[in-house]
Specification:
Layout lengths: L3 E3 L2 E3 L5 H11 L1 E6 L1 H5 L3 H8 L2 E4 L2 H9 L10 H12 L4 E6 L2 H14 L4 E6 L6 H14 L3 E5 L4 H12 L4 E4 L3 H5 L8 H5 L3 H8 L4 H4 L3 H8 L4
Parallel strand pairs: 3-4, 3-8, 5-6, 5-7, 7-8
Antiparallel strand pairs: 1-2
Amino acid sequence: MEKSCLRGVDVYPFRSADEIIDFADRRKGILVAINAEKVMFATDDTRRIINNNIGYCDGSGPVLALRQKGFKDVCKVAGCDLWLNIVDRFHSVKSFYIVGASEDVNACVVEKLRTEYPGIRIAGRRNGFFSDDKEREALISDIAETKPDVVFVAMGSPRQELFMAEMQMKHPDAIYQGLGGSFDVYVGRHKRAGKWWSDHHLESLFQIIHEPKRIKRKIKYWRFAWWLVARKF
């Protein structure tokens, strides 16, 4: 599949969640949710990880940018939906490793998955906090030893992308996906924007309304909006 470059960040113009899953199952690699922030603040390390793996549109900004570049059928796929689509597709045939969030949330995620998908194979689980490098290396070694088919990592960016790249070196034959705060959403700890907000590309406004402290972070996105208006992609 042809991919497009948004200011140095490569993004695949997927048309559906199923298309992403099919592609990832064939190729393996790290699924990276691309939003305006990941394009604007990409570093050499994160750009390399994205461009060598599978960047997909998780935000409205990249979708609009790709449509300007001629990819009219590209769609936005929220990472907090995509990981459950992957579980729906593969829960009876693949194994999963659950990494990230607090210990309480991580344990609740595994319990809920086992309730909703009886027989699902959880190869292992680990919260997203390490007291030292020894714990970090122990997790990477366990993933290399148990060889899960799918590894979900909820640590926030860019930490999760950098960590998945480390794990990938020891266990390359897997699908990895970074999930940010998706585990907290899944177990009901955080609220996400509904369909109306998503359909109108207003998720950022929803987040500001519900968490006003985010406004300092979101105001930086005006630069991305200017790139869209000025067709700078």
